[in-house]
Specification:
The protein is mainly alpha-helical. The protein has eleven helices and four strands. The chain has a domain at about 5-90 and about 175-320. About 60% of the residues lie in helices and about 5% in strands. Residues about 1-5, about 210-215, about 350-360 and about 370-380 have low confidence and may be disordered.
Protein backbone atom coordinates (compact mmCIF):
# COMPACT_ATOMS: atom_id res chain seq x y z
CA UNK A 1 0.00 0.00 0.00
CA UNK A 2 1.43 3.33 -1.03
CA UNK A 3 2.17 5.88 1.62
CA UNK A 4 -0.43 8.61 1.92
CA UNK A 5 0.70 12.23 1.72
CA UNK A 6 -1.85 15.03 1.93
CA UNK A 7 -5.60 14.98 2.23
CA UNK A 8 -6.43 13.86 -1.31
CA UNK A 9 -3.85 11.07 -1.29
CA UNK A 10 -5.34 9.87 1.99
CA UNK A 11 -8.79 9.87 0.36
CA UNK A 12 -7.54 7.85 -2.64
CA UNK A 13 -5.72 5.40 -0.37
CA UNK A 14 -8.80 5.06 1.81
CA UNK A 15 -11.00 4.32 -1.22
CA UNK A 16 -8.68 1.50 -2.30
CA UNK A 17 -8.79 -0.03 1.17
CA UNK A 18 -12.57 0.34 1.17
CA UNK A 19 -12.91 -1.54 -2.13
CA UNK A 20 -10.77 -4.35 -0.72
CA UNK A 21 -12.91 -4.47 2.42
CA UNK A 22 -16.11 -4.63 0.37
CA UNK A 23 -14.60 -7.47 -1.69
CA UNK A 24 -13.88 -9.19 1.62
CA UNK A 25 -17.54 -8.85 2.56
CA UNK A 26 -18.55 -10.62 -0.64
CA UNK A 27 -16.10 -13.41 0.20
CA UNK A 28 -17.82 -13.75 3.57
CA UNK A 29 -21.11 -14.34 1.75
CA UNK A 30 -19.55 -17.37 0.06
CA UNK A 31 -18.12 -18.52 3.40
CA UNK A 32 -21.67 -18.48 4.74
CA UNK A 33 -22.87 -20.54 1.77
CA UNK A 34 -20.05 -23.06 2.32
CA UNK A 35 -20.92 -23.35 6.01
CA UNK A 36 -24.57 -23.90 5.13
CA UNK A 37 -23.57 -26.61 2.65
CA UNK A 38 -21.55 -28.36 5.37
CA UNK A 39 -24.56 -28.37 7.69
CA UNK A 40 -26.86 -29.58 4.91
CA UNK A 41 -24.56 -32.45 3.92
CA UNK A 42 -24.15 -33.55 7.55
CA UNK A 43 -27.90 -33.50 8.10
CA UNK A 44 -28.61 -35.46 4.91
CA UNK A 45 -26.04 -38.18 5.55
CA UNK A 46 -24.43 -38.47 8.96
CA UNK A 47 -22.34 -41.56 8.25
CA UNK A 48 -19.52 -40.05 6.19
CA UNK A 49 -15.99 -38.86 6.87
CA UNK A 50 -14.92 -35.27 7.32
CA UNK A 51 -13.13 -35.25 3.95
CA UNK A 52 -16.32 -36.36 2.24
CA UNK A 53 -18.32 -33.52 3.78
CA UNK A 54 -15.74 -30.89 2.79
CA UNK A 55 -15.55 -32.14 -0.79
CA UNK A 56 -19.34 -32.30 -1.04
CA UNK A 57 -19.68 -28.80 0.43
CA UNK A 58 -17.17 -27.42 -2.10
CA UNK A 59 -19.21 -28.93 -4.93
CA UNK A 60 -22.36 -27.42 -3.46
CA UNK A 61 -20.62 -24.03 -3.16
CA UNK A 62 -19.64 -24.07 -6.83
CA UNK A 63 -23.23 -24.84 -7.79
CA UNK A 64 -24.72 -22.27 -5.40
CA UNK A 65 -22.23 -19.43 -6.03
CA UNK A 66 -24.20 -17.92 -8.95
CA UNK A 67 -27.40 -18.03 -6.91
CA UNK A 68 -25.67 -16.45 -3.91
CA UNK A 69 -24.19 -13.72 -6.10
CA UNK A 70 -27.56 -12.95 -7.70
CA UNK A 71 -29.23 -12.94 -4.28
CA UNK A 72 -26.71 -10.47 -2.85
CA UNK A 73 -26.99 -8.28 -5.95
CA UNK A 74 -30.79 -8.34 -5.72
CA UNK A 75 -30.57 -7.28 -2.09
CA UNK A 76 -28.38 -4.34 -3.13
CA UNK A 77 -30.80 -3.36 -5.91
CA UNK A 78 -33.73 -3.34 -3.48
CA UNK A 79 -31.77 -1.19 -1.05
CA UNK A 80 -30.68 1.08 -3.92
CA UNK A 81 -34.23 2.19 -4.52
CA UNK A 82 -35.75 1.93 -1.03
CA UNK A 83 -32.99 2.52 1.54
CA UNK A 84 -33.87 6.21 1.98
CA UNK A 85 -37.52 5.34 2.61
CA UNK A 86 -36.44 2.80 5.21
CA UNK A 87 -34.13 5.29 6.95
CA UNK A 88 -36.82 7.98 6.97
CA UNK A 89 -39.31 5.51 8.43
CA UNK A 90 -36.87 4.61 11.21
CA UNK A 91 -35.74 8.15 12.06
CA UNK A 92 -38.84 10.16 11.15
CA UNK A 93 -36.88 12.37 8.76
CA UNK A 94 -38.83 14.75 6.52
CA UNK A 95 -37.89 16.96 3.59
CA UNK A 96 -37.71 20.68 4.30
CA UNK A 97 -37.66 23.65 1.96
CA UNK A 98 -36.01 27.05 2.10
CA UNK A 99 -39.25 28.56 3.38
CA UNK A 100 -39.42 26.06 6.26
CA UNK A 101 -35.74 26.20 7.26
CA UNK A 102 -34.17 29.30 5.67
CA UNK A 103 -31.21 29.35 8.05
CA UNK A 104 -30.27 25.71 7.46
CA UNK A 105 -31.05 25.76 3.76
CA UNK A 106 -28.92 28.85 3.11
CA UNK A 107 -25.93 27.44 5.00
CA UNK A 108 -26.01 24.23 2.97
CA UNK A 109 -26.61 26.03 -0.33
CA UNK A 110 -23.69 28.43 0.25
CA UNK A 111 -21.35 25.50 0.88
CA UNK A 112 -22.51 23.74 -2.28
CA UNK A 113 -22.17 26.87 -4.43
CA UNK A 114 -18.69 27.66 -3.10
CA UNK A 115 -17.40 24.25 -4.18
CA UNK A 116 -19.62 23.49 -7.16
CA UNK A 117 -21.31 20.60 -5.36
CA UNK A 118 -24.85 19.60 -6.41
CA UNK A 119 -27.35 20.57 -3.72
CA UNK A 120 -28.52 17.43 -1.87
CA UNK A 121 -31.96 17.10 -0.36
CA UNK A 122 -32.30 18.57 3.11
CA UNK A 123 -34.11 16.68 5.86
CA UNK A 124 -34.89 17.41 9.50
CA UNK A 125 -35.38 14.70 12.12
CA UNK A 126 -37.58 15.81 15.01
CA UNK A 127 -35.43 14.59 17.91
CA UNK A 128 -33.69 16.25 20.88
CA UNK A 129 -30.55 14.28 19.98
CA UNK A 130 -27.62 16.21 18.51
CA UNK A 131 -26.68 14.42 15.31
CA UNK A 132 -26.58 14.54 11.51
CA UNK A 133 -25.98 12.06 8.69
CA UNK A 134 -25.80 11.80 4.90
CA UNK A 135 -27.48 9.15 2.76
CA UNK A 136 -27.92 8.27 -0.90
CA UNK A 137 -26.36 6.11 -3.60
CA UNK A 138 -26.45 8.58 -6.50
CA UNK A 139 -26.73 12.37 -6.97
CA UNK A 140 -30.52 12.21 -7.25
CA UNK A 141 -30.77 10.43 -3.89
CA UNK A 142 -28.18 12.33 -1.86
CA UNK A 143 -29.65 13.83 1.30
CA UNK A 144 -28.29 15.48 4.44
CA UNK A 145 -30.37 15.01 7.59
CA UNK A 146 -29.98 16.99 10.81
CA UNK A 147 -31.88 16.73 14.06
CA UNK A 148 -33.95 19.54 15.52
CA UNK A 149 -31.86 19.24 18.69
CA UNK A 150 -28.72 20.02 16.70
CA UNK A 151 -30.34 23.10 15.18
CA UNK A 152 -31.31 24.38 18.62
CA UNK A 153 -27.93 23.77 20.30
CA UNK A 154 -25.38 24.84 17.65
CA UNK A 155 -24.69 28.28 16.22
CA UNK A 156 -24.36 29.01 12.51
CA UNK A 157 -20.59 28.38 12.35
CA UNK A 158 -20.96 25.01 14.03
CA UNK A 159 -23.92 23.96 11.91
CA UNK A 160 -22.00 24.94 8.79
CA UNK A 161 -19.09 22.76 9.94
CA UNK A 162 -21.43 19.81 10.47
CA UNK A 163 -23.00 20.28 7.04
CA UNK A 164 -19.53 20.46 5.47
CA UNK A 165 -18.63 17.21 7.26
CA UNK A 166 -21.64 15.47 5.70
CA UNK A 167 -20.97 16.96 2.26
CA UNK A 168 -17.44 15.56 2.49
CA UNK A 169 -18.88 12.10 3.04
CA UNK A 170 -20.86 12.57 -0.18
CA UNK A 171 -17.89 13.98 -2.14
CA UNK A 172 -15.59 11.15 -1.04
CA UNK A 173 -18.07 8.39 -1.89
CA UNK A 174 -18.31 7.35 1.76
CA UNK A 175 -22.09 7.24 1.72
CA UNK A 176 -22.27 4.67 -1.07
CA UNK A 177 -19.58 2.52 0.52
CA UNK A 178 -21.28 2.53 3.90
CA UNK A 179 -24.73 1.76 2.52
CA UNK A 180 -23.41 -1.14 0.45
CA UNK A 181 -21.38 -2.43 3.40
CA UNK A 182 -24.42 -2.32 5.67
CA UNK A 183 -26.47 -4.15 3.03
CA UNK A 184 -23.94 -6.95 2.52
CA UNK A 185 -23.37 -7.30 6.26
CA UNK A 186 -27.15 -7.48 6.58
CA UNK A 187 -27.20 -10.38 4.10
CA UNK A 188 -24.59 -12.21 6.19
CA UNK A 189 -26.47 -11.54 9.41
CA UNK A 190 -29.78 -12.63 7.87
CA UNK A 191 -28.48 -15.96 6.56
CA UNK A 192 -26.47 -16.55 9.72
CA UNK A 193 -29.61 -16.20 11.82
CA UNK A 194 -31.53 -18.35 9.32
CA UNK A 195 -28.96 -21.16 9.56
CA UNK A 196 -29.04 -21.09 13.34
CA UNK A 197 -32.82 -21.13 13.45
CA UNK A 198 -33.14 -24.00 10.97
CA UNK A 199 -30.37 -25.99 12.58
CA UNK A 200 -31.07 -25.58 16.28
CA UNK A 201 -34.64 -24.42 16.83
CA UNK A 202 -35.92 -27.54 15.09
CA UNK A 203 -33.05 -29.69 16.30
CA UNK A 204 -30.18 -31.01 14.18
CA UNK A 205 -30.91 -34.50 12.90
CA UNK A 206 -27.87 -36.36 11.64
CA UNK A 207 -27.81 -39.60 9.76
CA UNK A 208 -30.72 -39.57 7.35
CA UNK A 209 -32.43 -42.46 9.10
CA UNK A 210 -29.46 -44.83 9.45
CA UNK A 211 -28.97 -46.51 12.80
CA UNK A 212 -26.22 -49.13 12.53
CA UNK A 213 -23.31 -49.14 14.98
CA UNK A 214 -20.89 -48.39 12.13
CA UNK A 215 -22.91 -45.34 11.16
CA UNK A 216 -23.03 -44.21 14.77
CA UNK A 217 -19.25 -44.26 14.92
CA UNK A 218 -18.97 -42.35 11.64
CA UNK A 219 -21.55 -39.85 12.81
CA UNK A 220 -18.85 -38.27 14.96
CA UNK A 221 -17.43 -36.79 11.75
CA UNK A 222 -20.78 -35.14 11.00
CA UNK A 223 -20.90 -33.60 14.45
CA UNK A 224 -17.39 -32.19 14.06
CA UNK A 225 -18.29 -30.78 10.64
CA UNK A 226 -21.41 -29.10 12.03
CA UNK A 227 -19.43 -27.56 14.85
CA UNK A 228 -16.90 -26.26 12.32
CA UNK A 229 -19.71 -24.84 10.17
CA UNK A 230 -21.20 -23.06 13.18
CA UNK A 231 -17.77 -21.60 13.96
CA UNK A 232 -17.46 -20.41 10.33
CA UNK A 233 -20.86 -18.73 10.47
CA UNK A 234 -20.02 -16.99 13.74
CA UNK A 235 -16.62 -15.91 12.38
CA UNK A 236 -18.16 -14.60 9.14
CA UNK A 237 -20.70 -12.57 11.10
CA UNK A 238 -18.02 -11.19 13.43
CA UNK A 239 -15.74 -10.23 10.53
CA UNK A 240 -18.63 -8.57 8.69
CA UNK A 241 -19.24 -6.34 11.70
CA UNK A 242 -15.54 -5.53 12.02
CA UNK A 243 -15.41 -4.56 8.31
CA UNK A 244 -18.43 -2.29 8.74
CA UNK A 245 -16.87 -0.58 11.72
CA UNK A 246 -13.48 -0.28 10.01
CA UNK A 247 -15.12 1.44 7.03
CA UNK A 248 -16.93 3.89 9.29
CA UNK A 249 -14.01 4.68 11.62
CA UNK A 250 -11.54 5.32 8.80
CA UNK A 251 -13.81 7.91 7.21
CA UNK A 252 -14.62 10.21 10.11
CA UNK A 253 -11.13 11.72 10.34
CA UNK A 254 -11.18 12.49 6.62
CA UNK A 255 -14.68 14.00 6.84
CA UNK A 256 -13.55 16.24 9.71
CA UNK A 257 -10.58 17.36 7.62
CA UNK A 258 -12.87 17.94 4.63
CA UNK A 259 -15.10 20.12 6.77
CA UNK A 260 -12.15 22.31 7.70
CA UNK A 261 -11.13 22.48 4.04
CA UNK A 262 -14.62 23.70 3.07
CA UNK A 263 -15.17 26.17 5.91
CA UNK A 264 -11.58 27.18 6.75
CA UNK A 265 -12.72 27.11 10.39
CA UNK A 266 -11.28 24.23 12.46
CA UNK A 267 -12.52 25.75 15.72
CA UNK A 268 -16.13 25.52 14.51
CA UNK A 269 -15.74 21.80 13.81
CA UNK A 270 -14.10 21.24 17.19
CA UNK A 271 -16.78 23.10 19.15
CA UNK A 272 -19.51 21.28 17.20
CA UNK A 273 -17.98 17.91 18.10
CA UNK A 274 -17.68 18.95 21.74
CA UNK A 275 -21.36 19.89 21.89
CA UNK A 276 -22.47 16.75 20.06
CA UNK A 277 -20.28 14.49 22.21
CA UNK A 278 -22.40 11.76 23.91
CA UNK A 279 -25.63 13.57 22.96
CA UNK A 280 -26.30 11.95 19.60
CA UNK A 281 -28.30 8.83 20.47
CA UNK A 282 -31.34 8.65 18.16
CA UNK A 283 -34.17 6.80 19.91
CA UNK A 284 -35.38 3.85 17.87
CA UNK A 285 -32.57 4.07 15.32
CA UNK A 286 -30.87 0.84 14.29
CA UNK A 287 -27.12 0.35 14.52
CA UNK A 288 -26.91 0.66 10.72
CA UNK A 289 -28.40 4.16 10.86
CA UNK A 290 -26.17 5.21 13.78
CA UNK A 291 -23.11 4.20 11.76
CA UNK A 292 -23.99 6.89 9.22
CA UNK A 293 -24.19 9.65 11.84
CA UNK A 294 -21.55 12.24 12.61
CA UNK A 295 -21.23 10.70 16.08
CA UNK A 296 -22.30 7.30 17.35
CA UNK A 297 -22.24 7.08 21.15
CA UNK A 298 -22.83 3.31 21.00
CA UNK A 299 -19.72 1.21 21.56
CA UNK A 300 -18.83 -2.35 22.40
CA UNK A 301 -16.35 -4.13 24.62
CA UNK A 302 -12.78 -2.84 24.53
CA UNK A 303 -13.86 -0.32 21.85
CA UNK A 304 -13.71 -3.16 19.27
CA UNK A 305 -17.23 -2.52 18.05
CA UNK A 306 -17.14 1.29 18.23
CA UNK A 307 -18.10 2.54 14.78
CA UNK A 308 -16.57 5.99 15.26
CA UNK A 309 -13.29 7.16 16.71
CA UNK A 310 -13.71 8.99 19.99
CA UNK A 311 -14.39 12.72 19.98
CA UNK A 312 -11.16 13.15 21.93
CA UNK A 313 -9.17 11.51 19.10
CA UNK A 314 -10.95 13.54 16.42
CA UNK A 315 -10.45 16.82 18.27
CA UNK A 316 -6.80 15.98 18.89
CA UNK A 317 -6.31 15.41 15.15
CA UNK A 318 -7.95 18.75 14.32
CA UNK A 319 -5.78 20.55 16.86
CA UNK A 320 -2.62 18.87 15.64
CA UNK A 321 -3.10 19.02 11.88
CA UNK A 322 -5.56 21.91 11.35
CA UNK A 323 -4.37 24.30 14.04
CA UNK A 324 -7.65 24.32 15.96
CA UNK A 325 -8.14 25.05 19.65
CA UNK A 326 -9.86 22.62 21.99
CA UNK A 327 -12.16 24.25 24.57
CA UNK A 328 -12.76 20.91 26.28
CA UNK A 329 -16.21 19.37 26.91
CA UNK A 330 -18.89 21.99 26.40
CA UNK A 331 -22.19 22.14 28.31
CA UNK A 332 -25.28 23.18 26.41
CA UNK A 333 -27.09 26.38 27.49
CA UNK A 334 -30.06 24.36 28.78
CA UNK A 335 -27.77 22.15 30.83
CA UNK A 336 -26.08 25.18 32.37
CA UNK A 337 -29.47 26.53 33.42
CA UNK A 338 -30.60 23.22 34.89
CA UNK A 339 -27.56 22.99 37.15
CA UNK A 340 -28.76 25.97 39.17
CA UNK A 341 -31.15 25.26 42.03
CA UNK A 342 -33.02 28.51 41.63
CA UNK A 343 -32.96 30.82 38.64
CA UNK A 344 -31.26 34.11 39.35
CA UNK A 345 -33.42 37.21 39.44
CA UNK A 346 -33.25 38.98 36.11
CA UNK A 347 -32.07 42.61 36.28
CA UNK A 348 -34.76 45.17 35.47
CA UNK A 349 -34.93 46.54 31.97
CA UNK A 350 -33.26 49.93 31.56
CA UNK A 351 -35.57 52.88 31.12
CA UNK A 352 -36.37 53.82 27.58
CA UNK A 353 -39.18 54.55 25.20
CA UNK A 354 -40.34 50.84 25.26
CA UNK A 355 -40.00 50.17 28.95
CA UNK A 356 -40.84 51.80 32.21
CA UNK A 357 -38.22 52.95 34.62
CA UNK A 358 -38.15 50.88 37.83
CA UNK A 359 -39.98 52.38 40.74
CA UNK A 360 -37.57 53.89 43.26
CA UNK A 361 -37.38 52.33 46.72
CA UNK A 362 -39.85 53.62 49.28
CA UNK A 363 -37.07 55.05 51.44
CA UNK A 364 -35.63 57.06 48.60
CA UNK A 365 -37.03 60.60 48.45
CA UNK A 366 -38.64 61.61 45.21
CA UNK A 367 -36.66 64.16 43.20
CA UNK A 368 -38.30 67.59 42.89
CA UNK A 369 -40.12 68.28 39.65
CA UNK A 370 -38.22 70.06 36.95
CA UNK A 371 -39.03 73.76 36.63
CA UNK A 372 -41.01 74.90 33.66
CA UNK A 373 -43.73 73.23 31.63
CA UNK A 374 -42.96 70.00 29.74
CA UNK A 375 -43.74 69.72 26.09
CA UNK A 376 -43.34 66.98 23.55
CA UNK A 377 -45.12 63.99 22.13
CA UNK A 378 -44.80 61.97 25.40
CA UNK A 379 -45.79 64.71 27.85
CA UNK A 380 -49.27 64.76 29.42
CA UNK A 381 -51.69 67.20 27.98
Amino acid sequence: MMAAYGLYTHIASNKLRSVLLLAGLFVLVYVMVFAGALIAEAMIDGGRSIDYYFNAAIRDLIKAAPVATIGAALWIVIAYFFHQNIIDAVTGGRNVTRQEQPRLYNLLENLCISRGIPMPKLKVVDSPALNAFATGLNPRQYAVSVTSGLLAALDDREIEAVLAHELTHIRNGDVQMMVVAVIIAGVIGFFGELFFRLSFNGGVRIGGGRSSSSDDRKGGGAIIVILMAVALIALAWLLSQVVRFALSRSREFLADAGSVELTKDPDAMISALRKIENRGELPGATSAVMELCIDNPRSGFADLFATHPSVEARVEALVRFAGGHDPGPLPLPAETTNTQDQPEAQPPLPPGPWGKAPAPPASTPQPPPLPGPLSGPWSPR
